[in-house]
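Customer escalation, tier 2.

The customer says the design service returned an amino acid string that "doesn't look like it belongs to this structure." They asked us to rerun it and document both sides in this ticket. The original structure tokens are below, unchanged.
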């Protein structure tokens, strides 16, 4: 059974983890256990705002939609723009990492690797090119 409901956004684990972390931090500050000597988080530990705020949902006509692109035109390594952001959001939504920058709109090596892994798992040609068959699988995953 599909874990998404029609028209209702799916919560992502990134938002839940962020809320839990914020809750622990607030508790520590209120309890006086936080210290000034705590190291500041580095850039690799913090998710980009775009990644954390994307909510994909089941659209009635196209399937899963994350708000960037509704089409099925081919995309591959080196492409950029809203189409790539949609691919990255869909891959993240299905549990694949698209690299440390998250949803940046650039189809680089991390997005290609995630795409190949998704294609292999879904018995598609694992070439890293997102064409109509891969779009369909991503939209229904």
């Amino acid at each position: 059974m599909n874990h998404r409901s029609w028209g209702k956004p799916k919560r992502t684990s990134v938002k839940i983890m962020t809320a839990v972390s914020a809750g622990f931090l607030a508790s520590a500050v209120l309890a006086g256990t936080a210290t000034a000597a705590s190291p500041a988080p580095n850039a690799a530990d913090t998710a980009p705002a775009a990644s954390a705020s994307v909510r994909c949902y089941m659209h009635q006509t196209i399937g899963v939609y994350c708000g960037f692109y509704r089409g099925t035109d081919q995309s591959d390594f080196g492409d950029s723009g809203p189409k790539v952001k949609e691919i990255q959001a869909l891959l993240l939504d299905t549990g694949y990492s698209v690299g440390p920058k998250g949803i940046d709109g650039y189809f680089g090596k991390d997005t290609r690797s995630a795409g190949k892994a998704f294609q292999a798992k879904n018995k598609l040609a694992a070439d890293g090119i997102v064409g109509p068959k891969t779009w369909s699988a991503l939209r229904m995953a």
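Tier 2 assessment: The sequence is consistent with the input. The mean pLDDT is 76. DSSP finds five helices and two strands in the chain. Sent an explanation to the customer and offered a walkthrough call.
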